[in-house]
């Protein structure tokens, strides 16, 4: 319980600093699930409440998970996914998605540039468990009218530092 309280306080600090919604998102069978969240104070926001499942292939958090997988497991999962296009910018082929996943592995973060919802931009970083394995994603998103890709990338250092703090809550 103390780890969950600490994690939520870290999410609060991020949201207060950047002014947008912050999410803690875990992989499960149906996709990525929002398990903790701090909403922005802005009345104009993207609503994805705790318990919402989002796809792997077109969300920043989902792509951090896919990029974390060993090559054979990633290819197997990609070939089983329904790469349903949600917008005109959604990856709808394994080839295009795999190319972005390589870049995500190299950069250590993922973007959603209106791939899941038109008008929404998101950025996510992986959160590792106490053995260095992928456990979740730490993500923030907002409407592109105020949360552009450039602004999202400016949040990267804060997200990475916060991800490391959250990772420490997994230690026994």
Question: What's the structural blueprint in terms of helices and strands?
Answer:
Layout: H1 2-18, E1 21-28, E2 31-38, E3 53-54, H2 60-68, H3 71-80, H4 94-107, E4 110-113, E5 120-128, E6 134-143, H5 149-154, H6 156-168
Antiparallel strand pairs: 1-2, 1-6, 2-3, 4-5, 5-6
- Written as H for each helix and E for each strand, in order along the chain, the element string is HEEEHHHEEEHH
For this structure, the CATH topology is Beta-Lactamase
* Number of E-type strands: 6
Helical content band? 40-55%
Terminal Cα span = 12 Å
Mean pLDDT: 92
The count of helical stretches stands at 6
Strand percentage lies at: 15-25%
Number of domains: 1
CATH superfamily: GAF domain
Just name the CATH architecture.
2-Layer Sandwich
Strands of the largest sheet, in order across it?
A: 3-2-1-6-5-4
Structural class: alpha+beta
Rg calc: 15 Å
Low-pLDDT stretches? none
Largest sheet: 6 strands, antiparallel
**Which shape, going by the Cα principal axes?**
globular
